[in-house]
């Protein structure tokens, strides 16, 4: 991957480029190898909407028959942006919700979480319900996993 000019391009740029536009940087013949497998034409799309967070999404798309059109690149970019936004970590989790999620991640029972936080089990359930909604999770454990993946806890 380190020698793949498409991967190098997506980490150095934002936007879209056809493989033919970045082929001159292919000193190891990676794109030539792709052509051996019928991947004759391709495009790379890279999105990094906030340089501070480092959140980057990218895609590499290939076909055998022709170059991607400008309209197709725009459509792929739009779809990738949608996925990028959909998977963005939420910024509205409260400190209380994050505390409860961390304790769930650590394997504590609802009763133990409530005792440690000095609140009722109902309050813990409400915090987890709210956190699940914000994280798009189905269970408290799923929410804790997603929060961990996002680096929130």
SSE blueprint:
Elements: H1 5-12, E1 15-18, H2 19-22, H3 30-36, E2 41-47, E3 57-63, H4 70-86, H5 95-105, H6 110-117, H7 121-135, H8 140-149
Antiparallel strand pairs: 1-2, 2-3
Helix pairs in contact: 5-7, 5-8, 6-7, 7-8
Question: Which structural traits does this protein have?
Answer:
three-stranded antiparallel beta sheet; 8 helices; 52% helix; mainly alpha; 12% strand; 153 residues
State the end-to-end distance.
30 Å
Counted beta strands: 3
Give me the secondary-structure category.
Answer: mainly alpha
Task: Report the major sheet.
Answer: 3 strands, antiparallel
Overall body shape: elongated
Task: Specify the number of helices.
Answer: 8
Helix content: 40-55%
Radius of gyration (CA) equals 22 Å
Q: Beta-strand percentage?
A: 5-15%
Report the mean per-residue pLDDT as an integer: 92
Spans of at least 5 consecutive residues with low confidence: none
**H-E string:** HEHHEEHHHHH
Strand order of the largest sheet: 1-2-3
Give a quick rundown of the structure.
The protein is mainly α and 153 residues long.
How does this structure look, described?
A 3-stranded antiparallel beta sheet has the order 1-2-3, sandwiched between helices. It has helices at 5-12, 19-22, 30-36, 70-86, 95-105, 110-117, 121-135, 140-149; strands at 15-18, 41-47, 57-63. Helix 5 (95-105) packs across helix 8 (140-149). The mean pLDDT is 92. With 153 residues, it is mainly α.
């Amino acid at each position: 991957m380190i020698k793949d000019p498409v991967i190098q391009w997506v980490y150095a740029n934002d936007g879209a480029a056809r493989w033919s536009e970045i082929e001159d940087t292919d000193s190891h013949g990676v794109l030539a190898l792709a052509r051996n497998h019928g991947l004759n034409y391709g495009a790379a799309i890279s999105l990094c909407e906030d340089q501070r967070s480092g959140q980057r999404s990218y895609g590499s798309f290939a076909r055998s028959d022709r170059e991607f059109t400008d309209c197709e690149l725009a459509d792929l970019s739009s779809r990738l942006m949608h996925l990028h936004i959909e998977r963005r970590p939420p910024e509205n989790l409260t400190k209380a919700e994050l505390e409860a999620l961390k304790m769930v991640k650590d394997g504590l029972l609802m009763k133990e979480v409530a005792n440690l936080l000095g609140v009722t089990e109902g309050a813990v359930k409400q915090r987890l319900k709210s956190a699940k909604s914000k994280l798009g999770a189905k269970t408290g454990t799923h929410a804790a996993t997603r929060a961990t993946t996002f680096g929130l806890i």
